[in-house]
Amino acid sequence: MFRIVREAIDLRVLEAVARKGDGGIVTFCGVVRERADDGRLVGSLWYEAFEPMAVREFETIAAEARDRFGDIRLAIVHRIGELSIGEISVAIVAAARHRGTAFDACRYAIDQLKLRAPIWKQERYIDGDSQWRATYEQG
C-alpha cells in the first residue's frame, strides 16, 4: 500500500503488510510538532505533493528495501493538506520474519522518503508568519 491521502491516516495500514510468520512489524508515525527546528511555535502545517511521482518514489523505496533487507513488506502513506499539532503526517509499516529486519527496513524507508519524495511542507507559525520547506530535513 503506497498512498497520498487527504484525510486522517488510518493506522490499520499494518493490515496491508502483516502476515502469519512475521516476527516483527514496525510502525513509524511522523507527527506534527508544536515547535519548528528553530524553536518557533507552530500553529499548523500545510503539505503538498506531486502525487503520482511521490507514490512511484514510495514504490521504488520499497523495492530497494526488499533488495537490501530481503523478504520484507512495506506500506507508506503520507497525508497532504492542513494538519494540526499532534496529527499524523506520515505512516510507514514494515513487516518481516525478524524484528531487526523490520526495524532496518522501516528506518530506511522514512530516511529515503525524506530525501527523495516530492513532498513539501509549509510551517505556519502562531505569530502569523510561515515558511515553505522544499525538502524534509535529515534527522
Characterise this structure.
Helix 1 packs antiparallel against helix 2. The chain is of the alpha+beta class. It contains two helices and eight strands. The longest helix is centred in the middle third of the chain and has 19 residues, at 51-69.
The N- to C-terminal Cα distance equals: 25 Å
Strand segment tally: 8
**Number of DSSP helical runs:** 2
Q: How would a textbook summarize the main sheet?
A: 4 strands, mixed
Share in helix? 25-40%
Sum up the overall morphology in one term.
Answer: elongated
Overall average residue pLDDT: 93
Major sheet strand order: 1-4-6-2
Low-pLDDT residue spans: none
β-strand amount: 35-45%
SS content category: alpha+beta
Element-by-element helix/strand order: EEEHEEEHEE
Q: Output the radius of gyration.
A: 15 Å
Concise overview:
The chain is α+β, with helices and mostly antiparallel strands and 139 residues long.
Keywords for this structure?
139 residues, alpha+beta, four-stranded mixed sheet, 2 helices
Topology diagram in text:
Layout: E1 2-5, E2 24-31, E3 42-49, H1 51-69, E4 72-79, E5 81-84, E6 88-96, H2 99-116, E7 119-125, E8 130-133
Parallel strand pairs: 1-4
Antiparallel strand pairs: 2-6, 3-5, 3-7, 4-6, 7-8
Helix pairs in contact: 1-2
